[in-house]
Specification:
The protein has 13 helices and 11 strands. Helices cover 56% and strands 18% of the residues. With 410 residues, the protein is α+β, with helices and mostly antiparallel strands.
Length: 410
C-alpha cells in the first residue's frame, strides 16, 4: 500500500537497470506461476540421447529468442563439469578379487567424506564430524592412483595383499553433465521463460509455431507446460462447469415454469453476456484468464433473473386475460425499474473489485470486469431479445399443438 506502481509496472524499470550491469544473466523478473511456482512458460524437450537433446535445445533457444515478448529464457541443461573417469581393467581386477563396488566403496568416503559422529563445541553446539582425504591428497588424478585396495590374494604372512588403484584401473580426465532430468521415462531438457508486454497465450502460440518448424528426429518431441498447460486444464474445467450450469438452470426453469420451451426464451440472454464480457475486458485492458472465466460462469445465474422477471410477468398477465403483445409490453414497462435497480446494484458492488484498488487485487480484477460488462449488456439486450424469442417460441408452441391435435382427430 506504500507504492504507487503495481508489480507488473515495476518489472520494466528493474529490467532496464539490470541490463546496465555487465556480466550477469537475468533468469527471472516478475511473478511466478501460482500453481507450480515456476516461470509462466515451460517447454519440455524430450528424447533418448542427451547430446542430441543439447543440439535441439540450442536450436530451440535460438528460435525462441526471436519471439517478441519472450524474456528470461533459461535452460535446465547447464555447462558440463570436469570429472575424473575410472576405467576398470576388469580381467585383472577379477583375478585379484576386486569388484567395481569395492572400488566405489573405497573412493566414496575418501573423496565425498563419511559422517563418523558428532562433536560438541565450546559454544555447546553439536557439529557433524566428516572424515575424508585432505585437499592436498585429492588434488589430482595421480593422488587417486595411489589409493590402496584390498585384494583377495594373501601375502606370506597371511594378511590380504593391498594393491594401488592404478594397477586395476585407468584414470582419465573428462567432463560430465551437471544433472540429468527425466520425464515420461525419457531424458528431458526443460526451457523456461517469462512474458513481457504480451499475453502468455499469444507468446505460447508463437512458441508452438517456432518449435513446429523444427526438424524432429524419431523419438524426440516437445511438450508445452507451465501456464499454457494450466490454462488448457483450467479452460477444460471451466467449460465443464459452464455446461453443467446451463443444464441445471434449464432443469430448474423447466420445473418452475412447467414448460420445456419458455426456459429457452429466458436462456437466450446467456449468449448476450459474452458480448459485454469481451467489451469490458478490452476497455480495462485485461485478458481472458481464469478469473474472468469464473466471472462469466457467475453471470449465468445473474443475467437470467431479468428474463425471468419479464417472462413470469407476461405469463401472469396472459393468465389474467391480456393478449400476448400487450402482456409483453406491460412486462417490459413494469419490470424495467427492478431490472435497472438490480443491474446498477451489481455494477457498483463489483466496481471496487474491477478497479483493483486493494492490495494484490490486480489478479482478481478481471472477474469484476467481466461481471460488470456482462450484466450491463445483458440487461439492455434482454429487453429486446427475450420478448422476440418469447414470441417466436410461443408461435412455435401453438403451431405444434395444432398439428398434434389434428393428428389425434384424424
Amino acid at each position: 500500500h506504500e507504492r504507487t506502481r503495481s508489480q507488473l509496472e515495476l518489472t520494466k524499470p528493474i529490467r532496464e537497470r539490470l541490463q546496465r550491469i555487465g556480466g550477469i544473466a537475468v533468469t527471472n523478473v516478475g511473478t511466478m506461476n501460482p500453481v507450480s511456482n515456476a516461470k509462466l512458460l515451460v517447454v519440455s524437450l524430450q528424447g533418448t540421447d542427451l547430446a542430441e537433446l543439447e543440439k535441439v535445445s540450442e536450436d530451440a533457444q535460438a528460435r525462441l529468442r526471436k519471439i517478441p515478448g519472450l524474456v528470461d529464457l533459461d535452460s535446465s541443461l547447464k555447462p558440463a563439469k570436469p570429472t575424473i573417469a575410472v576405467d576398470m581393467r576388469r580381467e585383472l581386477a577379477s583375478d585379484l578379487g576386486i569388484s567395481l563396488a569395492q572400488v566405489g566403496a573405497a573412493l566414496r568416503p575418501l573423496l565425498a567424506g563419511e559422517d563418523t559422529g558428532t562433536w560438541r563445541g565450546p559454544d555447546d553446539e553439536n557439529y557433524d564430524v566428516r572424515v575424508r582425504l585432505a585437499p592436498s591428497d585429492r588434488d589430482a588424478a595421480a593422488d587417486l592412483e595411489r589409493i590402496m585396495l584390498t585384494s583377495s590374494q594373501l601375502q606370506p604372512d597371511g594378511t590380504p595383499r593391498a594393491v594401488p588403484l592404478r594397477q586395476v584401473a585407468a584414470l582419465r580426465e573428462g567432463v560430465g553433465v551437471s544433472q540429468i532430468n527425466r520425464r515420461d521415462l525419457t531424458r528431458e531438457v526443460e526451457l523456461t521463460a517469462n512474458v513481457y508486454g504480451r499475453s502468455a497465450g499469444e507468446v505460447s502460440k508463437d512458441i508452438k509455431t517456432a518449435l513446429g518448424g523444427m526438424e524432429w528426429k524419431p523419438g524426440y518431441r516437445w511438450v508445452m507446460g507451465g501456464s499454457t498447460k494450466d490454462m488448457q486444464e483450467a479452460f477444460g474445467f471451466a467449460a465443464s462447469a459452464l455446461f453443467l450450469a446451463i443444464v441445471f438452470i434449464y432443469m430448474i426453469l423447466a420445473s418452475q415454469f412447467r414448460s420445456f420451451v419458455q426456459p429457452l426464451a429466458i436462456m437466450s440472454s446467456l449468449p448476450l453476456t459474452l458480448i459485454g464480457v469481451i467489451l469490458a475486458l478490452m476497455v480495462f485492458g485485461s485478458t481472458l484468464n481464469l478469473f474472468s472465466i469464473i466471472g462469466f460462469i457467475l453471470l449465468m445465474g445473474l443475467v437470467t433473473k431479468n428474463a425471468i422477471l419479464l417472462v413470469d410477468f407476461a405469463n401472469q398477465a396472459r393468465t389474467a386475460g391480456s393478449g400476448r403483445r400487450e402482456a409483453i409490453l406491460e412486462a417490459a414497462r413494469v419490470r424495467l425499474r427492478p431490472i435497472l435497480m438490480t443491474t446498477l446494484a451489481m455494477v457498483f458492488g463489483m466496481l471496487p473489485l474491477a478497479l483493483g484498488i486493494a492490495e494484490g487485487a490486480e489478479q482478481r480484477a478481471p472477474m469484476g470486469q467481466a461481471v460488470i460488462g456482462g450484466v450491463i449488456t445483458s440487461s439492455l439486450l434482454t429487453l429486446v431479445v427475450v420478448p422476440v424469442v418469447y414470441t417466436f417460441l410461443d408461435d412455435l408452441t401453438v403451431w405444434a399443438r395444432r398439428r398434434f391435435t389434428r393428428k389425434e382427430q384424424q
